[in-house]
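ok so for the tutorial part 2 we go from a plain amino acid sequence to predicted structure tokens. step 1 is just haveing the sequence, like this:
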Amino acid sequence: MPTLREVKKRIKTVESTKRITKAMEMVAAAKLRRAQQRVEQARPYSEKLDLMLSHLATASSDEITHPYFEEREVKKKTLIVITSDRGLCGSYNANVLRLANNWLKENAAYDIDIITVGKKCHDYFKRRSWKITANFQDWGGVIDYDKAKEIVSLASDRFLSGDTDEIALIYTQFISTVKYKLQTKRYLPIARPEVDEEAGFNMDYIFEPDPESIYDAILPNYATSKMIMALAEAIASEHGSRMMAMGNATTNAEEMVDTLTLDYNKARQAQITKELLEVVSGAEALNA
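step 2 — the prediction. this is what the tokens look like for a chain of 288 residues:
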């Protein structure tokens, strides 16, 4: 049985840990609010681009042809995986990497390379000797737009040059503070927009200068928008997971302190009782 001094020391250690986890929870909550705002700001633009492509498809009399839409025989695939740089965010990274592993098993017949976004996935795939084409890390929990454009530029160049035939993207879609959804989406080639019959009803479109030039301008922005949206949602999901993990750790620490304090009080009470019995026994011995 531990001594009173050992129990007291352990209580102090747990209380110190609790202060750290509480501080990390508060920092994560502050970062989450900012990340959530970025997601809410980015979504309307991304949705508007989807609508614009749908309108263009509706207005175009001919079938859309553009390198970003090119469907070819798939022999080589690239996987972009987005995780965090840091840990202490519960099962967030483990869930993303489990999904990535499943995707790799399902696509084992293809020649695969990986673009890692975040230190955790880079370290994970490096240990397993996967072919890593590029690594983007040290985000600091915020979107670095220059890095985001580098990712898009690299992915687009590889697809357009024929170095890869299809690019998939794995990330987490932010739902709420306590919930996210794992996503696997085809990033390139871009899915051909569906014709929106209602949008084109009784509506005349005038293209200036021409549909091809408009697609040349819109599609690179569309690819960039989708990547920035995925990064924004992943970062918000990371902060939400870290806030929950640190909150749970703080609660567990509080419960442990309560349990240890109770043990300390019981041990202290037993010690006092023992000392009293010794005093009484000594007094009785003297009287006898």
